[in-house]
## 1
Amino acid sequence: MKSYFRTEIDALDGYTPGEQPKLRHIVKLNTNENPYPPSPRALEALHAVEPESMRRYPDPAADTLCSAIAERFGVRREQVIAGNGSDDILTMVFRGFSAPDLPVAVLEPSYSLYPVLAAMQGAPVIRIPLEGESFALPENVLEQAEGANLLAMVRPNAPTGNAFPKAAVREICAKFDGMVLVDEAYADFADDNCMDLVKEFPNLIVSRTFSKSYAFAGMRLGFAVSSPEVVAGMFKLKDSYNLDAAVQAAALAAWQDTAYLSGRVAQIRRDRESLRKSLMDMGFRVVKSQSNFLFAMPPGGDGEGYFRFLRENAVIVRYFPGPVTGRYVRITVGTPEQNAELLRFTAERFGGK
Ligand SMILES: Cc1ncc(COP(=O)(O)O)c(C=O)c1O
């Protein structure tokens, strides 16, 4: 059949999400999900959803939730917008700030959805390679991003796990002539974050997700904080009812259960460090991580071979082909039992170094 799609869509490969295997009894460490359940209060809130709130349309602005988020960060209500996962937020950002004559600058490696969102807009992509084995932000990032209307970065970065210096992000916000997106999907696992910079720089958008730290990947809740002007513009770009009533109620309950979040995050951070050490003891190179995953290069640098070996043993991690990323795998920090299972098979292959 003749295609009636826009040329950009016909040319598009589309985003490849991490595998969601149907099999039970696998150790699933491939999509950075939280290995623990969400807050029990979130489940209680879900059970308490009234038939009436299913019958009626939900609050299009998720006002109660956004007000609670604004209060925690000390910003105005008009500075917060919620989305159906942070991918929904990212879609609004790329729709709003990229076009054939408005290029996007992205770091490499970074979240592989960004180039796909840019391609949907027909926007040119400026790719800025991270430097060395520590995947550092290049000093001349601003020079390289020259001409872009949107500079998108993940902090802590995915899939590498490291966090760029906050001072560098501040300098970018101050000097870049365009919008800066700092995707903080993993910020709850990090030592610091860039949320306070939003008060200083109107061209900064900080996005967050409940998928990882709040164990909400299946519920879909993300949000962004920016200047009131930018949030007002993004509001025009979103689907009218992008968040159902149940997720709004559950997310508010999870957001308020700060003690539960801190406990789970602390456990994952501890286990991240011990998993990193065990892998390094077997000769792996492992990037120092500020997130809930590790970017690890097996001895010999055959990331794909290690990925396949684990897969044959029902341990699933994420592999990104490519000259740099292909030497590594990305391993989500699981429960201590899951991590032990990964290490047991890894020792079979690399234990003797
Ligand atoms: C860097 C980054 N941003 C955003 C997302 C999207 O998360 P969600 O749409 O589940 O909020 C992910 C998911 O893996 C991610 O790694």
## 2
Amino acid sequence: MPKIPFPKRKVPRRVAVEQFAILERTYPHAETALTYENAFQLLIAVILSAQCTDARVNATTPALFARYPTPERLAGAKAADVEKIIRSCGFFRAKTRNIIACARDIVERFHAKVPRKREELESLAGVGRKTASVVLAVAFHEAALAVDTHVFRVAHRLGLTTGKTPLDVERDLTAILPREKWRLATHWLILHGRAICKAPRPLCDRCPVADLCPTGAVILRKKKAGAAFLRLHRPD
Ligand code: SF4
């Protein structure tokens, strides 16, 4: 399927607000699909989830946390042992280096506690803005909106942003929503991206936001035109 171009202009603010209201009603129990018991486990799970499904991470972390339940234990781990456990998550050598270094940072610089400030989180090995946002939003219930590949794609298709970078997208989305909705909006967009607004083939005819979506309007129009063409040229 050819790549679906993003709209070149943003939708008006009132449309954006209505789109979010529909997503909120559609995904009332929005929460992370990663399983975790504390901020440390969530942080490690989010690092492992790069280029990997949450289901795969959830299948891996029980063994990892059984052996290394605390930052201190993971900080002292041998890379080869960790690699064996997280191998199926992809990029396992780099991820092993990152999670061990991250655990060491937490132990040496933050008294073995995951820090709660964005700058401190982003100073940990392997932690960028998106990972820090997930930990702030999910573990600490802070106002933060994480832009992953689903959020980036769905926000563009809906015309909520024309931003070139994840930070541009984050700025556009947080300008539309009140602070208390930021953390939930991440989940609405991720869930919608996984279930309906899929990367190669969005299911626009099943989408609750289709009437307000500039991309959906184009896709559905093309689909209708294609169906009419086939009807006209059907052999009798
Ligand atoms: S209408 Fe289509 S492109 Fe727009 S949000 Fe829904 S699934 Fe995505």
## 3
Amino acid sequence: MHVVITGGAGFIGRRLCLELLRRGQLTSGAGLPARIEHITLFDHLPPARPVKDPRVRYLAGDIGDPGSVRDVIAAGTDSVFHLAAVVSAEAEANFDLGMRVNLDGTRNVLEACRALPRPPRLVFTSSIATYGGKLPDPVTDETLQTPLTSYGAQKAAAEFLVGDYSRKGFLDGRALRLPTITVRPGKPNRAASTWVSSIMREPLQGEDAVCPVTPETRMACLSPRRCVAALIRAHELPAEALGISRSILLPGLSVSAREMADAVHRHAGNRRLGRIIWEPDPAIQRIVDGWPKASRSARAAALGFEGDASIDEIVRGFIEDELEGQAQ
Ligand SMILES: NC(=O)c1ccc[n+]([C@@H]2O[C@H](COP(=O)([O-])OP(=O)(O)OC[C@H]3O[C@@H](n4cnc5c(N)ncnc54)[C@H](O)[C@@H]3O)[C@@H](O)[C@H]2O)c1
């Protein structure tokens, strides 16, 4: 099989690539397990930590450019994981960029899939930022999508397109609504949720972190391990299992900033911990307050998607995978 991961130089794309290499196979469109021969990681940035494996190649290009996307999703592509995106705060600050990458870029991916001789399987990463305003706690399968950011609106629109291209038989798509994936390695990014990782990652590495929201602020969280397992699970499901909706809400554990800080202390071991400096920023707090505090989906559970049991599981996973190098 030939698998394409757009946004493949990013956080989740890299982790997904490593897990696909470890498994070595995926279910093909015919529903049978097939060996993964090639993984193409498409991104406009070079990877900070390249994956070194003869099955992997990097291709540089802009998802907003239809020609580049057609070149990467070329004949022979069996599966596409479409992850390339401009994240929330950046899409909010730069409307045109968000539209070009998150909406037009997705359309480019869908059209490239449609042009293939065989409709590929496609897994798209949407977000619980497609919900907003006065929300039930937790958000469930019954909650209406009412995005209150441009990023959320672009992701919601893209979900509907994935559904319609699937209904037309142009591809076999699945869209996952991801909660905040934490703990992210590396440096803070431009997501309004970036503090969710900073306040655990930096202290565990002896550095101070600024938290731009109050300690009581709660977020719906999922670990990278569970996220990657969900992306692969979404790919493996037969189309018949999905029914009329191609979108699936993933489970997000409700964790406050204070509970994240406490979990870091429980798992620090002999590490010298950095401090958290609480400095609420009204603009970030406003965006984050409009997002779900937790998500629960009976449909996802019935389809075999699993969330994390506790913030301790999430922190332990980060220490093992990133600080002790188990994820490479
Ligand atoms: N990480 C989270 O908490 C979270 C939550 C909800 C949804 N998501 C979605 O999951 C996906 C992956 O998230 P991530 O955390 O790995 O993000 P990331 O920023 O680490 O990765 C996204 C990648 O897309 C690439 N990209 C951006 N613009 C591009 C362009 N014009 N052309 C080609 N590539 C481009 C970036 O260079 C980056 O490597 C995204 O679609 C994101 O919206 C993530």
## 4
Amino acid sequence: MKLTTAGESHGKALIAVIEGLPAHLTIDIEKVNAALALRQSGFGRGARQKIEKDRVEVLTGVRNGETLGSPVTLCIYNRDFANWESSMSSERCDPDAMEAKKLTKVRPGHADLTGMLKYGQEDARNILERASARETAIRVAAGEIYRQYLAALGVEIGGYVYEVCGIKDEGKYAFNQLLQAKNTQIGMLNADLEGLAVEKIAQLKKDGDTAGGGVEIRVRGLKSGFGSVMSYTEKLDAQLAQGLMSIQAIKGVEVGAGFAVANASGKEIHDEIFYTQEKGFYRNTNRAGGIEGGMSNGEEIILRAAMKPIPTLMKGLQTVDYATKEKAVAASERSDVCAIFALEIIGEAAVAEVLANAVSKRLGGDTMEEVIQRYHLLP
Ligand SMILES: Cc1cc2nc3c(=O)[nH]c(=O)nc-3n(C[C@H](O)[C@H](O)[C@H](O)COP(=O)(O)O)c2cc1C
């Protein structure tokens, strides 16, 4: 399978093309729209999320609610485009409107400066429009299609926010509890800690500052043997790390015990293996996070990802004006203060994409019936 996304933040639309989905996958579009609504929610989001209510349109590859086996094209129209057409249209922009939207006070922590130098641009808008996390809307839509493919095999993905700006939840949660996170303000499962985190975000907003945070994403029901020990490029942990790290503002990814392995002994970290006729092979612990040797081992997959604080600060950081080379305060367009709730939703989408690809790589299949049959034949 292959996913391509396209689209600028204030352009006409965002597009995703998914190639390689088998025929006869039932697509529930309202579930895609529900995921898009979740991506736009959470305490700490900026004004844009209120302007636009994202909805997906399927342009190709699905007929009467079922995939055909042809490329599936998803589209989200940017409702805000009406206000940006004169400066973002693909032809005949109004020079005054372009000038009004020009950004040269390049923002630290963004792609602005490096992108301008690399692509020979005088206006950071030509970089930031693509660098923006708006792109993740269409990745969430595609991720929901992949999730529906995985769900047909009994594979489920869930997650929650375990940390916001130093307020950390050390609790251990069963997979079923994770669903509750979607009904909270910022995705935390401990209501007291969430209350503190919300207060913290509100305070940061008052101070013109921002927050990041950490999310845990878990996968239940994936059989062993997905990914590969034979080829480093197909290692499942490597692919999951790439999928998560490709999301804007993610600066660290952990699998299972993650960075804690660095200060633990072997006895403390490795999951011993047992066997009974009834259970087959099993482990009593899962510090490996469900992946050994680059392959799923049948246990829950456990991943963590850390998001840096949003780099646009209302009390802008110091920078240089690209045009004048003078010292300046970085530009600040309307912006999120904290987007950790959204990040959890996007992270699940990225994980769904990687896992659907790993399943497809191993099992192939032109129809969902073939995929399901092959999956159930596995030990
Ligand atoms: C869901 C989400 C929302 C974001 N919202 C904003 C925002 O409102 N303002 C901002 O400056 N950065 C925001 N970011 C972060 C930037 O997109 C990101 O830091 C920037 O593109 C640079 O990429 P990098 O951090 O991966 O190096 C957001 C990221 C995510 C995942």
